[in-house]
């Protein structure tokens, strides 16, 4: 067990590492002077703007700097802070790619980077966020296919998932394990293909699901979760049909064509006899003599 002095030294070293690794590469411009009190000479970063520590003062658990007009990129080192469960850098001017280290943290609960200019692809490693509850990467410039393992088994605690207003393509993932979802937004991307029954199978009936303004096609599956959505949550998919849209799915032409009709009269044997009708008298056949 570490002594108090060892803990202090370890924490001071961490404070220096935190500052040296983040400040030079994190921010190119800080017009609001949000980071003016980030000083590596401090014994602890727990009083720095945007930084929150656990009650024991030996763990940084939160980095929250939204609406700060910060310009720069997110350094890889930020993902190595072991107990950092909340990262909110939304509504800034951050660019570059999303560090893979941010997607491999078992304790991460909130990752909000919306309204920036972050680009690149979302890799399947996003499934490493086993404790995640909020993922908001909306209004950025992410490209490539929507990861099919976006919510694999074990990643079932997500309540808010917002990837709207990016450049993502590909199909909606099957086997979508969204038992805890309250809000799902994939709108304003380039997603295509069918909305499969498997996609909506585990989504709660009261969750809000916005799939608008993509290139989805076919009939919306008959699912309580999908049927409960507002019509506008499916708007902008011109080849999508079925409830809750007012656009009904057309019957395939092979089924809508009337069967071939003939003008020949039906055979006598096919005409049913009237019930209780009087039978015709039997006719005797006269056989002529030869």
TrEMBL record:
Keywords: Leucine-rich repeat, Membrane, Phosphoprotein, Repeat, Signal, Transmembrane, Transmembrane helix
Keyword Iron: no
Compartments it resides in: Membrane
Keyword Phosphoprotein on entry: yes
Positions of the Leucine-rich repeat-containing N-terminal plant-type domain: 20-53
GO cellular component, one term: membrane
An annotated GO BP: defense response to fungus
Pfam families cross-referenced by the UniProt entry: LRR_1 (PF00560), LRRNT_2 (PF08263)
Membrane topology, from the record: Single-pass membrane protein
Residues annotated as signal peptide: 1-29
Record-given protein name: Leucine-rich repeat-containing N-terminal plant-type domain-containing protein
């Amino acid at each position: 067990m570490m002594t108090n002095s060892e803990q202090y030294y370890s924490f001071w070293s961490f404070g220096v590492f935190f500052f040296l690794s983040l400040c030079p590469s994190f921010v190119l411009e800080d017009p609001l002077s949000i980071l003016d009190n980030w000083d590596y000479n401090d014994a602890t970063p727990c009083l720095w703007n945007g930084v929150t520590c656990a009650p024991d003062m030996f763990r940084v658990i939160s980095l929250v700097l939204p609406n700060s007009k910060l310009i720069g990129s997110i350094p890889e080192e930020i993902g190595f802070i072991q107990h950092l469960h909340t990262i909110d850098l939304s509504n800034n001017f951050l660019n570059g790619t999303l560090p893979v280290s941010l997607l491999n943290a078992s304790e991460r609960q909130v990752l909000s980077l919306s309204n920036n200019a972050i680009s690149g692809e979302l890799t399947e490693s996003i499934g490493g966020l086993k404790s995640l509850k909020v993922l908001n990467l909306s209004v950025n410039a992410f490209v490539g296919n929507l990861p099919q393992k976006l919510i694999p088994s074990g990643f079932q605690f997500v309540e808010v998932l917002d990837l709207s207003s990016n450049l993502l393509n590909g199909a909606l993932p099957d086997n979508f394990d969204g038992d805890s979802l309250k809000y799902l937004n994939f709108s304003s991307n380039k997603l295509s293909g069918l909305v499969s029954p498997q996609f909506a199978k585990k989504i709660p009936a009261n969750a809000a699901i916005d799939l608008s303004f993509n290139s989805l096609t076919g009939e919306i599956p008959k699912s309580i979760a999908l049927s409960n959505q507002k019509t506008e949550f499916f708007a902008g998919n011109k080849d999508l049909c079925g409830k809750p849209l007012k656009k009904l799915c057309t019957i395939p032409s092979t089924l809508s064509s009337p069967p071939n009709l003939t003008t020949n009269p039906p055979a006598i044997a096919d005409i049913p006899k009237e019930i209780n009708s009087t039978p015709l008298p039997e006719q005797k056949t006269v056989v002529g003599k030869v």
